[in-house]
Amino acid sequence: MDRLIIRGGIPLRGEVEAAGAKNAALPEMVASLLTGESIQLHRVPQLGDVKTTIGLLSHLGVSVERRDRETLFLRADRISRFEAPYQLVKTMRASVLVLGPLLARFGRARVSLPGGCAIGTRPINLHLAALEKMGATVSLDAGYVEAKAPRLRGARITFDGQTVTGTENLMMAATLADGVTVLENAACEPEVADLAALLIRMGARIEGVGTPTISIEGVDHLHGAEHEVIPDRVETGTFMVVAAITGGDVTINRCVPCHLEAITEKLQETGVIVEETDWSIRVCGDGRVQGINIRTHPYPGFATDMQAQFMALMAIAQGSSVITETVFENRFMHVNELLRMGADIKVIGTTAFVQGVPMLSGAPVMATDLRASASLVLAGLAAQGITTVSRVYHLDRGYESIEQKLLGLGANIERVTE
Description:
- Its EC number is 2.5.1.7.
- By secondary structure, this protein is α/β, with parallel strands linked by helices.
- 31% of the residues lie in helices and 25% in strands.
């Protein structure tokens, strides 16, 4: 098992390039199930979750070929299985996205329930109820969802709560349905819009993407397409905080600044300088930031995936901060590890009260989930002394070669294998 050893206290400076977005690449890989023709995806990051998705799609019969570091070719012309087994689904909840495409194109699907999640429950009941409204017969058997439908039909679906995977699953299913499907209270995230862009290139008829109401007119078949995955806004945001927390000067290239407006606004409130071009963001800090209050919300609000990173920053801010988590009920698992490094944080329910301290101290810490692991790396970069971050396989699920990128900015960091 790998771990990262960080010697902190160094202001990081230089340029780094954002990778393709994991949360866009995964559903776009799954979208290959909707056609027997080739799908070519560019800027697909080399991540643990991407590897897991390749394994799942290969299990179903999709031909997957990586021709270079960033390009995948997928062809689902010989699907031989219609079941996503537990041993594959249990490691990544996004695996449930195969349900909609399999059901839409082949009329059947058997997908294992994803099980527990370290950051809280993320039930798929919204997906299943919507598929039933589209004419599917859905049942549960031995921990599996079984769905059948000769052909899905269009329906008006109103989600009780915004769900990214639910929006993506139903949007993909609706592309091959009979008639028009309208998704109300749909997720507005850029990753949803990027999936829609791919589907439209494949011949889908979709309107309203980026708004809470998405309309999809079903077609008889979809064809192959070529598409470039959007830059990862969470990785971009993480490196923005790297500059702020170390008092450095970092430029993130090949990103989309308009996807990070909520993050940029909050960073500016802390007192750091943020400069933007069309495709880059530069963040300059002097090591002194002001405490601010944060409340997570679905896009375009402050992303829950950036909450842990900002908590690490607030741990060394001047004054106090209040951080409220509204998206997931158990996303403060990094707090105990930050306390080990000298942070002053008290959690009451879904709110964390952070009193900034002059300095964090290096310590052995353990990652509990993907974004928590990023916050511990950030804290280690700012801390005095040595920080050892264990369980970095969480980090590898969503950050491509993060230690190499940090080394390029001047960090003292190394990966060791136990």
